[in-house]
Amino acid sequence: MCKVSVIVPVYNAEKYFRTCLDSLSAQTLDNIEVIIINDGSIDGSLEIANEFASNYPWFKVHSTQNKGVSHARNYGITKACGEYVAFVDSDDSIEPDYCRAMYEKAIRDNNDLVVCQFDRITLSNGELTHLFSQTPLFDADNFLMTDRRDLFSSISVGPWDKLIKKELLDKLEFPEEIRYTEDQIFAVKAFCYAKNIGTVKQVLYHYYYEIHGGITSGFGDERLDWVKVMEHLSSFVRDDKSGYALKDEIAFFMLSKSMRLCASAIVRTNLNFDLRTHIVKTIHAFFADNLPGWRQNSYYIDDVIKRSRRTHSPQFNYSNGKRVRPLYCNYSERHCLILIKLSRILPDMLFGIVLRVDQGLFGFSRRIRWGLF
């Protein structure tokens, strides 16, 4: 058994893959293995993987038919012999102390899940920009999720900033039938199952966001997979005591993501009208069937109050390729659909004015309702 197994799924990533593997070969922790799962690549990714494996004996290469990143990760888990397992995406990079810092933390404090900080590298005005924000999760050193429920909304949903004890993975797998946000099911369950979660307050992972392409860079019908994710999480709450113990927190997790997705459907006026309306209708239908009292969720109420008091909302959506500042979108289904229909009728500039006026009036009425003056 080695200390850490790092699983790297790769599919047609030759342009960025070498940088990723360079960062893995520079790890300062000894007795690790790097398991590369070639997911049926048809470019030069396999050749690059084999080149590194010939130079570094702890690099191991396996090839499968192209079945997606979830299958590649699950297959990698079956090949791992490490005491702990980490995941690195083929177009990202890590710091030399990525494995060492998290492993030493896990051994010192007997953690079965360790989370490190990461930054997002994005393209702004033709230059790479590192975006980093401190989250409340890292205010805690070691914790159990049911003891720190207030931190649930701060959990990171990617698998790549985590070190996971091999035994914990016996309860976890990546759903292979889902293309979009499939890793969020894995992450939520990992935080619920973990008996001792530790944090490392160093930026050890560099996540290239909406630069290299991939499923998260677009906005197509794969976004409807989010409803499948919510169905998985609802089953987890209903059928597993670890999920039920955090049912309100998981409900808010689903609500907050869904509201952002509905906001994106409103502001992305250059996208297919039918898709945008279908996303909104499908999400609200799920709410009606599975979360009928969603507006009474205490975390949702607290978040609405917090966001209503802000002068400006954070940037999180794109409109025709440019970032915009929509308010937190907790509109009803009818409200969303009216705005989407107006975006189809009105010129972009006029719709932008209508949207700002609508948000201003909505925010004002909400502050009156909640007595936030």
Structure description:
The protein has about 375 residues and is of the alpha/beta class. The chain has helices spanning about 15-25, 45-55, 70-80, 100-110, 180-195, 225-240, 240-245, 245-265, 275-290, 300-310, 335-345, 350-370, and strands at about 1-10, 30-40, 60-65, 80-85, 95, 115-125, 125-130, 140-145, 160-165, 195-210, 315-320, 320-325. The strands form two sheets. Strands 1, 2, 3, 4, 5, 6, 7, 8, 9 and 10 form a ten-stranded mixed β-sheet that branches. Strand 2 (about 30-40), helix 2 and strand 3 form a beta-alpha-beta unit. Residues about 210-215 and about 310-325 have low confidence and may be disordered.
Low-confidence stretches: 212-217, 311-326
Please outline the major beta sheet.
Answer: 10 strands, mixed
Whole-number average pLDDT? Answer: 88
Radius of gyration: 21 Å
Feature tags:
single chain, 373 residues, alpha/beta, ten-stranded mixed β-sheet, two-stranded antiparallel ribbon, 12 strands
Give the arrangement of secondary structure elements.
Elements: E1 2-10, H1 14-25, E2 32-39, H2 45-55, E3 59-64, H3 69-79, E4 82-87, E5 93-94, H4 98-109, E6 113-124, E7 127-131, E8 142-143, E9 162-165, H5 182-193, E10 197-208, H6 225-239, H7 241-244, H8 247-267, H9 273-290, H10 298-308, E11 317-319, E12 322-324, H11 333-345, H12 348-370
Parallel strand pairs: 1-2, 1-4, 2-3, 6-10
Antiparallel strand pairs: 4-9, 5-10, 6-7, 6-9, 8-10, 11-12
Helix pairs in contact: 1-2, 5-6, 6-8, 8-9, 8-11, 9-11
